């Protein structure tokens, strides 16, 4: 299977003449020989531009490649303009499949004879089509209401194609891991494993529906981000019905400027939304290419993003989140020693790394870009420096952070396009400082105690018995009093009873039961103290 897929990929690349991306005089000898030996695979699209050929080749090869093209399209600073423009079509204008087939899939999935049973004005011409699915407009008839919706339908037969590409990637990853010196550090097998999970999850629209509902809940009443409503009752594994939105695509800068959008605020909000999702919610939209982001037409002076396609979301564990935030803050304070130390402590670089040398290397990469607006930072240059530093210090790829890094690239690209004067660091710093403060400050302690209240409310009735039994316990030996070892435990337990009781009374509107616990705790505390000190 993998061999035939490999042949298919090579054939597509050569028949679209993509080998022309590397000029003849720069091609390694072996590559020239290989090209010459596949003489029957000639460029069949000579009349088309290189950008168009690349787009068509990626489209022919399917979702995995289309996603790669979408990502490339956002790096206008690294690609020639005409190629980036062509690739941008992959965000929402991929060749559609027939509308009648989509209609049939919807009817089958929802168990109806005709879409008109549930929807009016179903349009068989798709509104848009991208890597995984295509989208049709309709009006949902629900409880006497007519709701403007879109119906997203997964492309038929794409799973087999995705699985074939993944199998090929897995083979390459294993090969890279065992044959190349960089294999261990880059952890290709683990990275492909994560990617596999992410991509296959995206084929399940019930998952996307759940993600969208969660994200919508996280941003209820937010001025910065709106997530359209999902109608889960009409959603299945391959069909998703959701509120239709009419925003301006974020890549349409002209339209945004024309309606007088506050571009600075919009770019800053992009950064804010990203950091809020990552640090506050630990649940972030991880497919933030421009085809999935719109800007509301209302209130251009107070612009709001609209996010769609929540098929890929990322999460971080507490530890990674903590290290990341501390890293960012140390970086904002130009404390490169701390950045280096954090990398060692978190295990992102080996434990025997020379922290001083590492600090120096980080300073060399970061200092030139510090406090500069995006327009003055050469992204390609920074990336090359970062890769070199990572290699020099044997920094392993962290598969759990790859999605986040990809998203960060999107956010940076977005900011660069919307408002090149954006100072990414200045925008993010106050947000992160607040977040860290909230994690360690007194409010955080109270919040944690509050979160544990149900547990303590359940355990508290047992405490008086525990206290009584402990006080009654006979001395273990004549030389040892029971008081000494029991005292700290008792004091701890009782003080906690008191505190929890008071907290309960405070948070639950001082109800009688909670108040009594507080009082009982305090009284037992006093009795125990008297007893223990005699
Ligand atoms: N709720 C909506 N309202 C209006 N248009 C929408 C809506 N949802 C999707 N679209 C349009 O359909 C396009 C494709 O939708 P979506 O991004 O969900 O498909 P996909 O195949 O999962 O895409 P991707 O390649 O990003 O994974 C979007 O770029 C957008 O233009």
What does this entry look like structurally?
- Helix content is 57%, strand content 8%.
- Strands 1, 2, 3, 4 and 6 form a 5-stranded antiparallel β-sheet that branches.
- It has 4 domains: 2-91, no CATH class; 158-199, no CATH class; 247-440, no CATH class; 443-533.
- The chain has 23 helices and 11 strands.
- Residues 478-484 have low confidence and may be disordered.
- Strand 3 (133-142) and strand 4 form a beta hairpin.
- It is an alpha+beta fold.
- Helix 1 (2-15) packs antiparallel against helix 3 (50-61), helix 7 (158-179) packs antiparallel against helix 9 and helix 21 packs antiparallel against helix 22.
- Adenosine-5'-triphosphate binds at residues 91-92, 127-128, 130-133, 135, 150, 152, 228, 242, 244-245, 287, 291-292, 308-309, 311.
- The chain crosses the membrane at residues 512-529.
* Number of E strands: 11
* Rg from alpha-carbon coordinates: 29 Å
**In percent, how much strand structure appears in the residues?**
5-15%
**Overall body shape:** globular
Structural class: alpha+beta
Bound molecules: adenosine-5'-triphosphate
Number of domains: 4
Uncertain ranges? 478-484
Question: What's the mean pLDDT score?
Answer: 86
Distance between the termini: 82 Å
Helix count, per DSSP? 23
Largest sheet: 5 strands, antiparallel
Helix content: 55-70%
